[in-house]
Amino acid sequence: MSKKILLALIGTILLLSGCGQQIEDPLNWDVEAFEFTNQENQPFGSADLEGEVWLADFVFTNCVTVCLPMMANMTELQKELKAEGLDVKIVSFSVDPTIDTPDILKSYAENYGADLASWNLLTGYSPETIDEFAIANFKAPARKPVDSDQVIHGTRFYLIDQNGVVMKSYEGINPPVEDILSDAEILLAANDE
Fold this sequence. Notes:
The chain is α+β, with helices and mostly antiparallel strands.
């Protein structure tokens, strides 16, 4: 191999290694514009998340099954993100808005030790609206059967990029914390380039 070819090959390898990493198999689901009400009884929506990397999930305060580990896991994930210096916002959409008022959501999050400076819990819409929103944007149901006080909903955590695009989805009951941290770091680094 000639010296010129070898130098060209080394240069190409160095150039490629300098390029930012990409999210593997991104979902690329656009999240439609939204504005709901957060735990402070203030409007909060997609405009507040422009340019931010964020995690989303669907929970409700009256849940007796999956929401308990999901909330505990998201709280731990929030602590891990902070420890790694990763500025990722969290948005939890209530799937039971007739019960989950801003005050109830705030108390619920505080009971888990959530840092509400970077975590918004949303309500202020009809059950039909959140079901349609969850299906259209996150491919997950949010339906409350007529004869039940429980809601059928997705249990995944979603990582959304700075442009409001869902990039990845992870199991929320047993989340792959290292994968989430790594993917969040990739998205945040892309913003710095």
